[in-house]
Structure formats: C-alpha cells, structure tokens
Amino acid sequence: MRIFPLFLFCYACAEKETDTAISTEAISDTSTEPSSPTSEPASPSTEPTSEPSTCTLNDLEWVAEMRTSTGNTSSFQASDELSMVGIIQNPCTESFVLTTMTTCLISQALLQSNSGTGTYLHEPICGSAISDWVIPGGGSVEEVIYVGTRPADTYTLELIFADPGVHSASLLFSVSP
Prior knowledge:
- The chain is 3% helix and 38% strand.
- By secondary structure, the chain is an all-beta fold.
- It has a domain at 57-176: Intracellular proteinase inhibitor BsuPI (Immunoglobulin-like).
- The strands form three sheets. A five-stranded mixed sheet has the order 2-10-9-5-6, with no helix packed on it. Strands 1-3-8 form a three-stranded antiparallel sheet, with no helix packed on it.
- A hairpin with a 6-residue loop joins strand 9 and strand 10 (168-176).
- The longest helix has 5 residues, at 24-28.
- The radius of gyration is 27 Å and the shape is globular.
C-alpha cells in the first residue's frame, strides 16, 4: 500500500484590518430608542490603509550584459578582462522584493562561442538560504561574474536567474582581435 503525503497551503488566511473595523459610535450609543434602518449602506472606514504592491514578477526586466574591467559594455577586444552581468530592473515606482531560495541572483550562465571553439558554463556555488533582493522603484540589482579574456569570436551569453519564475536573459556580442 502506498501512502501519499498531503500538503495544505493557506493562501490568504489573514483578514484585512478594514474588514473587521467596527464603528465605535455604534457601540457607545446607549439610547433605548430603536434605530431605524437606512437605505444607504454603511460607508467604509476612511482611515488610510497601505495599498498592496501593483508591481509583479512579470513587470521586472531581466537583462544580460558583458562588461570590461573599465565598465565598457559596447565593444570588446581579445585582451579585455570580461565579466558577465545579470541585471534585474524594476520599472515600477514602488520597490519590489524578489525572493530566491539561494544566496545567488544567477543560478546558471552559459557563454558559447559561435565558431564552436569554446564554451564557458558557470554554475555558482550558492548558499542554501532564502534571500530577499530589494529592487527599488526605477532601480535595479545585479550580480557580476568574472570571465576573463576571450579569443576573438562572436558569442552568445545566456543567464538563468534564481527567481521562482526561472527567468532568463540572453545577449549576442563580439570580441575583436
């Protein structure tokens, strides 16, 4: 006989503060006269409440970039020390908290030369810890991975991020002799 584990999840177990608000005016009324019903529904509380974030994981922009040690991102020489960079940009006005199950932002990177002369696979050694990456509104977070020099060729870079949606970003670039 096989026993299958059953997992139960509570998606929204907490009540909103405004759902349970009670008018103190109605409680403190000690008159003995019966109240007459009104045709208008009770107005909701006008107390300020925090709005839930309207920014979602799908609103974020996932970018792959190559950089030289001096920060150049457009043209590369075979003598340049290169780094690949995974960037997550937040176009929203409010901050977004991205949670990963590791201490790394990038879970894997693959750099392939188009002529077939070399492949660089990066599988980082990350800590097994839940990590919150706070991405400010209009800002970004990034992880830089050093690659070193590459021979002259055209390359394809693919980054796989460690987010719950397993987003990826790719880039085609050239290294001149």
